[in-house]
Amino acid sequence: MSLFTKKKRNIRRTREDVVFDTLNTIFMIFLCIVMLYPFINTLAISLNDASDSIKGGIFLWPREFTLKSYEHVFSQSTIFQATWISILRTVIGTGISLICTAMVAYAISRREFVFRKSVTVIFVLTMYFNGGLIPTFLLMRDLQLIGSFWVYILPGIIGVFNLIVIRSFIEGLPESLFESARIDGAGDFTTFFKIVLPLSLPVLATVSLFVAVFQWNQWFDVFLYNSSDQTLSTLQYELMKILQNSTAIGGGSQTDAFVNSGSQAERVTPVSIRATMTIVASVPIIMVYPFLQKYFVKGLTLGGVKE
């Protein structure tokens, strides 16, 4: 054991260190409570009796436990087909967008690509200017994408923000990696798939979470392009319609809305349906995060050579 290690172990924590750690812990606990309370409160309202929820006073747990709101939401005949479409567009859209965005980011990150600055400027301009809603709809119509599943995937296949993030990450990789690949006779595709992609797992995991959340939460494109085709409806769009119907029945207020389900009358309100919708739509995408979390803490150039 070196002398430096012995001295380091003998260093005692000062009073300022203890105070800082204590305040930092208190602040982080407070921040966690602030972040988690709205979700827990929404969950409690969704599990509480709808008519009782109108009285208020529900915080962390339901006062009168019931699953009537969930039964009402899942009793809709289209909810499971819509959930399947949402899962498909999230998985397929995230995978295709991730690969295409990473390939373009790799291309414009290479110094030997003489047009990389011009291409980057063109991409960035699309973040500030677009053709508008009507021209976009006409373009989708001319491309014969209206009424098809691919209208959810192709228009947003490359996100400019994600492109810039991945490009910046690739530019930070050691240049000796690419020089070694060229010396060994590797082409751009070999370099991209065997060197760049494995080393880019942290940023790809982050971007995939962004894209997955975006795809899962989308409903406006369904309203624009596929609202007449029930087989292509998504979960978010169906839940939006349930909320609209419940609000219309309840008069847009906190009053009760009675919904008949078979021979048993279920009492639901716009508030209870809104809370239930939030939980149903949030839980699946929240479950994705633990599988991606480990990549956020990995080194940026894991497995790379030293300069």
UniProtKB/TrEMBL annotation:
PROSITE patterns: ABC_TM1. SUPFAM superfamilies: MetI-like. Pfam families: BPD_transp_1. GO terms for biological process: transmembrane transport. It is a multi-pass membrane protein. GO terms for cellular component: plasma membrane. The chain crosses the membrane at residues 21-40, 84-107, 119-138, 150-170, 191-216, 271-292. InterPro entries: MetI-like (IPR000515), MetI-like_sf (IPR035906). Residues 83-289 form the ABC transmembrane type-1 domain. Keywords: Cell membrane, Membrane, Transmembrane, Transmembrane helix, Transport. It is found in: Cell membrane. PANTHER family: ABC TRANSPORTER PERMEASE PROTEIN MG189-RELATED-RELATED, POLYGALACTURONAN_RHAMNOGALACTURONAN TRANSPORT SYSTEM PERMEASE PROTEIN YTCP. Belongs to the binding-protein-dependent transport system permease family. This is Carbohydrate ABC transporter permease.
